Amino acid sequence: MSSSINPLLYDLFAGLPDTPQPIYAKVKQAIHHKISSGQWQPHQRIPSEAEMVQALGVSRMTVNRALRELTAEGVLTRQQGLGTFVAQKKAHSALFEVHNIAEEVASRGGTYHAEPVLLERGRASVEEAMSLGVRTGHAIFRSRLLHFENELPIQIEERVVNAALAPEYDQQDFTHITPYAYLMKVAPMSEGEHLVEAVLGTEQECRQLHIDLSEPCLQIRRRTWCGEQIVTTARLLHPGSRFQLFGHFGR
Questions:
Q1: Rounded CA gap, 123 and 81, in Å?
Q2: Which end of the chain is more exposed for a tag (fewer CB within 10 A), N or C?
Q3: 173-216 pLDDT, tens per residue?
Q4: DSSP letter (8 states) at residue 126
Q5: Dihedral sign (CA 35, 41, 43, 44)
Q6: Are 91 and 244 in contact (CB under 8 A)?
Q7: Element counts in the chain: helices (H) and strands (E)
Q8: Lowest mean pLDDT across 16-20, 41-45, 48-52, 156-160
Q9: Which SS3 state, helix, strand or coil, does residue 39 take?
Q10: How big is the CA angle at 146 (ends 144 and 148), to the nearest 5 degrees?
Q11: How crowded is residue 131: how many other Cβ atoms within 10 Å of its Cβ?
Q12: Partners of 204 in the beta sheet?
């Protein structure tokens, strides 16, 4: 290759299997491999269409299609007048599973911490009692936490807990242990349910999540049981641009 070729394009196709597929698909696969292997990092500007056309000897239409599809899939992000960049990886969670958010962040190589906003003991309102399956006035705990990944807020967690099943909930230091981890110790989950919605956050929530008022959020309302009793109800709010759900189905 000529020394004028962008060095990011050296060995772009190295390691790819020699399989019969359209050229645009090979370009797309090669770029995806560079990103998934960590050779091209989030927020890094990638070579332009013109540079790829010159270095790879393919048509501009071929390169354009590969970049368009990768952008649509969230792998790349294109900024008018600036170029194309590797997208920041979104946080994700399994739709049919419940995980410790601290472990999810760690699995992505991120740094996790939480900021407790509210932790109090109270008596269940009519609505809270109905959601927990207890009598109005039953002893409960309320908590509100802000979860971070690499100093960026990724989730607001609001939770109501049946105090009879987790009597020391309000004594926990949720900067060092997540509510999930504590509750799994004292009242292990036997089943759960999710309700997922796209919503707009309140002004306060958008301020806490560092997003614009117009940015859609992903809201998950969750209830979990230990045996026949409901342990907790939770509302989890995520910035839409930083979170995605996935699920695996089998036959």
A1: 56
A2: C
A3: 999 899 999 999 999 988 888 888 889 999 999 999 999 999 99
A4: H
A5: negative
A6: yes
A7: 7, 10
A8: 16-20
A9: coil
A10: 160
A11: 16
A12: none
Check: CB of residue 237 under 8 Å from CB of residue 156: yes
Phi-psi category of residue 168: left, alpha or beta, with phi > 0 → left and psi -120 to 50 → alpha: alpha
- Separation of alpha carbons 11 and 227, rounded Å: 56
Separation CA 53–CA 12 (nearest Å): 13
Per-residue model confidence (pLDDT) at position 15: 52
Tokens at residue 228, please?
A: 């026949």
DSSP 156-212: EEEEEEETTTSTTGGGS-TTTS-HHHHHHHHS--SEEEEEEEEEE--HHHHHHHT--
SS3 134: coil
pTM to 2 decimal places:
0.61
User: For 31, which DSSP code?
Assistant: H
Exposure of 4 by Cβ count < 10 A (0-12 exposed, 13-18 middle, 19+ buried)?
Answer: exposed
Beta bridge partners of 145: 116, 157
Question: 39 forms bridges with which residues in the sheet?
Answer: none
pLDDT for residue 99 is more than 80:
no
Residue keyed to tokens 């036997």: 190
- Cα(64)–Cα(68) distance, rounded to whole angstroms? 6
- How many other C-beta atoms lie within 10 A of the C-beta of residue 162? 25
SS3 117: strand
pLDDT at 2: 44
